[in-house]
Design goal:
Blueprint lengths: L1 E8 L4 E8 L12 H14 L3 H34 L5 H8 L2
Helix pairs in contact: 1-2
Length: 99
């Protein structure tokens, strides 16, 4: 599976797009506690999906959430570094970078 990540960031918002391109499917056996297995089956039934598709969707959402947390951590780090140098606006950043 190939994963393509596109991040769009402006002053007012940040958008994170993740698109997975399926190349092949790999079969794996997983163990679930009875309550999670039942919940996965119930969701699959109500959404007209397979249990496999429900698990895939959950893993994709978990990956997206993890990537967003990592991105926010990186942004926090560089924001702190910029503030330490007195860079508070994009204009100041451009001036600092010599643009």
């Amino acid at each position: 599976m190939t994963c393509v990540v596109v991040i769009i960031h402006t002053n007012h918002y940040m958008m994170l797009y993740i698109k997975s391109v399926r190349t092949t499917a790999i079969k794996k056996t997983i163990s679930l506690p009875p309550d999670l297995a039942k919940e996965a089956e119930d969701i699959a039934r109500s959404e007209g999906k397979t249990v496999s598709a429900v698990i895939q969707d959950a893993l994709r959402r978990a990956r997206t959430a993890r990537l967003k947390r990592e991105l926010k951590g990186i942004q926090h780090y560089w924001s702190r570094k910029a503030k330490e140098k007195g860079i508070l606006t994009e204009k100041e950043l451009r001036r600092y970078l010599g643009e």
